Amino acid sequence: MKANEILKLYGSGKTSFQGEKLVGVNLSHADLIGINLTQVDLHSANFILAYLNRAKFTKANLVAVKFSGANLSQAELTGANLRDADLHGAVLQGADLRSADLTFACLLDANLMDADLRHTNLAGANLTGACLRGANLREESQGYTVNLRGATLRKADLRGANLTGADLAKVDLRGANLSEATLRGADLSGADLSEANLKGAFLTEANLNRVVLRGANLVNAKLERAVLLEADLAGVDLQGAVLPDVKLAKAHLPKANLFRCNLSRADLSRANLAGAILREANLTDTYLARANLTNADLTDASLVRAEMSSATLTGAILQGALLPDGTLQIR
Question: 14-62 pLDDT, tens per residue?
Fold first, then answer.
């Protein structure tokens, strides 16, 4: 079926083209609001700048389809194959993309606000500058997680997004906005979050092994029981963050701001905290074996029962601190 036939039939009131084969059809700029293209083969079709609001593409073949600039708000794309699709600047606000395959898709500057991306495959996708505010990317059930491995989310807007249990290993999230995002149990191992905004984010039990968080904003973030072994947190702002039972062994934290942080029972063995601000921090029962606290500011910090017998404290400020034996360091 050719493009002019589709447009003529649609104009006469026909909206369902379910099961048709429309490979390579050119429907750029077309007004096809509410069209039903469920299970249609649209490989390499052209929908550039088309109006596809509330269109149905359930289980459709959309490999290498051109959707750049198209309006797909509230569209149904569950189970659709969008591998290598071009969605540059597309509007997908409120779209249902559950279980869709977006491997290597281009979503540069796409609008995915409030989109449902549960169990979606976004491996290798380019989401640079995309807006994912309020998007649902949480783990659906065991083994049904959104796959973002190798994806690029540089400067993406993920404010308030639900990424519970998401696979974000080695993802490029430099400069991304993840403030108030939920990342409980997410895998962020090896990810690059340099200069990212994670203010107030929920990272409880997240895997952050070898993550790069240089210069990131983690003010008031929740990181209970998170694992950050060998993580790079140079210059990070963790003011007021909640980190009880966190694992930061061999982590790199020079000049980090840990003012009023709760680090009770944390493992900071062999961590580099040179020049770090730990004023009024709670380090009760913290393990600081061979930690480097050179020139660190521990004014008014609680170090009750902390293990720091082998820590380096050259030049450290301990005025008003509660020491491991419970005594107060006199100012």
Answer: 999 998 889 999 999 999 999 999 999 999 999 999 999 999 999 999 9
Write down the H helix ranges in the chain: 3-11
DSSP 274: T
Q: Alpha-carbon distance 185 to 196, whole Å?
A: 19
Distance of alpha carbon 156 from the chain centroid: 9
Cα 68 from Cα 244, distance rounded (Å):
46
List, in sequence order, the alpha helices (H) in 174-261. none
Contacts of 274 (CB under 8 A, 6+ apart): 254, 255, 292, 293, 294, 295, 296
Instruction: Quote the DSSP letter at residue 326.
Output: S
Residue 23 and residue 229: Cα distance in Å, rounded?
A: 49
- For the chain, the first-to-last Cα distance in angstroms comes to 85
Please say whether the beta carbons of 104 and 83 come within 8 A: yes
At 191-238, the pLDDT tens digits run 999 999 999 999 999 999 999 999 999 999 999 999 999 999 999 999
Does this model's pTM top 0.85?
Answer: yes
Say if CB 20 and CB 42 are below 8 A apart. Answer: no
Please, are residues 67 and 83 in contact by the beta-carbon 8 Å criterion?
A: no
Torsion angles phi and psi, residue 149, rounded to 5: -60, 130
Half-sphere exposure (Cβ direction) of 214: Cα atoms closer than 13 Å: 7
pLDDT in tens, 152-162: 999 999 999 99
pLDDT tens-digit readout, 96-110: 999 999 999 999 999
Query: 155 with 174: CB under 8 angstroms?
Result: yes
